[in-house]
Amino acid sequence: MDHLETLESQSVFILREAYRQFKQLVMLWSIGKDSTVLLWLARKAFFGHAPIPLMHIDTCFKVPEMITYRDELARQWKLNMIVGKNTAALESKQTFPDGNSTRLECCASLKSEALKKTLSGEWPRWILDHTTGEYVRRVGGEAFTGVIVGARADEEGSRSKERYFSARDKQSDWDVGDQPPELWNQFKTDFAPGTHVRIHPLLDWTELNIWEYIERENIPVTDLYFDRGQGIRYRSLGCWPCTKPVESTARNVQEIIEELRSGKFANIAERSGREQDKEDGNGLETLRRRGYM
Fold it and tell me: Torsion angle of alpha carbons 251, 257, 261, 263, nearest 10°?
């Protein structure tokens, strides 16, 4: 068994354990490479289909190609797709692009708050209707307390403090110092009623592992990751006002792998193009303590 097979086996085990232990379970899909690999692993874990609902928090400021890719794959793979958003903040223009909030405030509102309220069922959800191919607005619904996330420990500092099964309180707030030890693949899954648990099947994967696995499995990803003739591409995806591409001529998965192996980005953080990370002196930890993905 090679290293990728070992990582795949561990992730599949975590996904199956989560499905067995948590009844109100949902998987976050950011449309990026990591969460798409996570979706692929879920389909492997459950024999070709994803029995876990997929949730995307739409800020309405994503790069448009991301939404096109999301809906094409959701329809093709028959995904149980849920979309949440902070319509009040969007309608009142309390956002960074509208000039009425900082980047961090915007993230907290359009991402963290939207995630909390969509998970709880307090805010409307938009559900993909596969008979029409359109999203239908639904009010209320089951509260999700188990949340599968495609976070990796090497991605940025706060994520390295996570566990495979990481508890949050009822408000989805994260006490970084109160995390159970996970030794010798012994995982704590018996949490008190009402506890929100984030599950991280990709925690030990690296950026290089992700791309190697995408190549091996031929996983479809958005072409925003590739140079389309301008000498730039996205290394990390997010909202267009806060996410910048990197200089790169990598036109396919193999060329991205070669860039990572050669050390072109060895000393450059993967999220270095995310402006909201720079606004917070603690990286993403401030946002993540308050429920950010």
Answer: 40
Boundaries of every domain in the chain = 3-205+279-289, 207-277
> In whole angstroms, how far apart are CA 83 and each of 7, 79, 127, 129, 149?
29, 12, 6, 12, 15
9-15 contacts at long range (C-beta below 8 A, 24 or more positions apart): 10/185, 10/201, 10/204, 11/38, 11/41, 11/201, 11/202, 11/205, 12/41, 12/44, 12/45, 12/201, 14/164, 14/187, 14/199, 14/200, 14/201, 15/41, 15/42, 15/45, 15/46, 15/148, 15/201
Q: Which tens digits make up the pLDDT trace of 232-281?
A: 999 999 999 999 999 999 999 999 999 999 878 877 767 655 555 555 55
For the domain bounded by 3-205+279-289, which CATH number is listed? 3.40.50.620
Residue identified by tokens 């993230």 is 107
Q: Which residues contact 161 (CB under 8 A, 6 or more apart)?
A: 176, 179
pTM of the model: 0.87
